[in-house]
């Protein structure tokens, strides 16, 4: 009897999980914490991932329910995570490189200062 009740709860749990995932997408956003961007007069900013929540019904009345569930529940959240995550990764890499090259505490700038002082 107990195993039968577990099987009836499993689809409900999966449906709730997909509904929660389907209600959001990921977008790149400027991070609130910019530890050295203003001290070094940098052009790039540190990025982070933010979530936005979808409101309303995203599928029409004549849409196949399974196709809608797959598109809204899987494709949109995963796709936005991959694209936005890549943008954040590349942006933060460029931000780190700019810090290393333009700030006095940066690795490249300090190495160039050592080279100049030995000449």
Could you outline the blueprint of secondary structure elements for this entry?
Blueprint: H1 2-22, E1 24-30, E2 47-53, H2 65-102, H3 107-118
Antiparallel strand pairs: 1-2
Helix pairs in contact: 1-2
Give a verbal description of the structure:
There is one protein chain. This protein has 119 residues and is mostly helical. The chain has one domain (2-118). It has 3 helices and 2 strands; from the N terminus they run αββαα. The protein has helices at residues 2-22, 65-102, 107-118, and strands at 24-30, 47-53. The chain has a two-stranded antiparallel sheet with strand order 1-2. Helix 1 (2-22) packs across helix 2. It is rod-shaped and about 75 Å long.
Labels describing this entry:
12% strand; single chain; 119 residues; 60% helix; mainly alpha; 2 strands; two-stranded antiparallel ribbon
| Number of discrete helical segments | 3
This entry's quaternary arrangement is: single chain
Number of domains: 1
Q: What fraction of residues sit in β-strands?
A: 5-15%
N-to-C SSE string, H for helix and E for strand: HEEHH
Structural class: mainly alpha
Measured distance between first and last alpha carbons: 84 Å
Look at the structure and give the mean pLDDT: 78
Give the helix level as a range of percent.
55-70%
Give start-end ranges of low-pLDDT stretches: none
Give a quick account of the main beta sheet: strands, pairing sense, barrel closure: 2 strands, antiparallel
């Amino acid at each position: 009897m107990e195993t039968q009740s577990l099987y009836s709860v499993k689809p409900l749990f999966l449906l709730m999980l997909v509904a929660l995932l389907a209600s959001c997408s990921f977008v790149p956003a400027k991070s609130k914490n910019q530890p050295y961007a203003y001290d070094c007069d940098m052009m790039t900013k540190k990025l982070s991932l933010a979530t936005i929540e979808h409101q309303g019904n995203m599928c029409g009345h004549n849409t196949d329910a399974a196709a809608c569930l797959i598109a809204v529940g899987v494709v949109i959240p995963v796709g936005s995570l991959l694209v936005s995550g890549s943008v954040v990764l590349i942006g933060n890499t460029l931000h780190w490189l700019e810090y290393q090259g333009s700030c006095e505490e940066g690795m490249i700038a300090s190495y160039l200062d050592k080279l100049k002082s030995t000449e």
